[in-house]
Amino acid sequence: MSLPERVVIGMDPHKRSATIEVMAGDETILGTGRFGTDRAGYSAMVTYAKQWPDRVWAIEGCQGIGRHIATRLLADGEQVTDVPPKLSARARVFATGQGRKTDATDAHSVALVGTRMAGLRPLVNDEQLAVLRILVDRRRSLGEDHTRMVSQLHQLLLELIPGGAKKSLSAAQAKALLARSGPGTRPARPGAG
After folding, report:
1. Which residues form the Transposase IS110-like N-terminal domain (predicted)?
2. What are the strands, taking DSSP E only, across 37-109?
3. Residue 107's closest CA among 51, 36, 29?
């Protein structure tokens, strides 16, 4: 009795749905489907895929829109590889002769890339990396918030003080400027100065 052949499950992920195509090594299409990404849809998709015990999921954009579903599959012990969107776009053009995008053609092109390309990046369930990613995202968000607030402060000071304030302004300096331009002072007039 021969062992079952490894299949690639190409996926075109979206926020609320995922379209898949199951492809054998000889590029025969063994199955297709569209599933929701809620609990019931995800469970149905994984149950459907279990009929192929030797499988690897090839997901387009695991660092972007595919991240949420790739993470769930990894947590469930599935093998997942990341297919860069540029590669699947090229495969779609070569396979169909056109660049038209549908969920089914995207899933097919991802499956083709997963079947044909060696060296695709496998994803690993690395909890430390996930925590670091969350911290980096938070740091970036705090930096963006700081920049936005400083810009708002400078805009406010420009409205209250003719000529505004210097670019590098400490919190204490901003507080002192705001105190001096309190309720009894008039804001700068448009066109004045």
Report:
1. 9-162
2. 55-60, 80-83
3. 29
Give the pLDDT score at 126: 67
Q: How far is CA 52 from CA 101, 117, 163, 182, in A?
A: 27, 20, 70, 72
- 37 has a pLDDT exceeding 70: yes
Residue for token digits 């998709």?
Answer: 45
Domain ranges of the chain: 7-125, 129-180
Helix (H) or strand (E) segment spanning residue 165 = none
Return the number of other C-beta atoms located less than 10 Å from residue 38's C-beta.
11
193/4: higher pLDDT: 4
Long-range CB contacts for residues 90-93, cutoff 8 Å, separation at least 24: 91/116
Task: Tell me the CA distances in angstroms from 58 to 71, 114, 148, 151, one per residue in order.
Answer: 13, 6, 39, 43
**CATH 3.30.420.10: does it fit domain 7-125?**
yes
Q: 3-state DSSP call for residue 44?
A: helix
Which residue from 126, 8, 15 is spatially nearest to 75, judged by alpha carbons? 126
Q: Are 21 and 31 spatial neighbours (Cβ–Cβ below 8 Å)?
A: yes
Between the CA of residue 173 and those of 157, 164, 182, what are the distances in Å? Answer: 11, 13, 14
Percentage of the chain modeled with pLDDT above 70: 82
Neighbours of 96 (CB within 10 A): 14
pLDDT bracket for residue 147 (50, 70, 90): confident
Helices (H) and strands (E) in the chain, counts: 6, 6
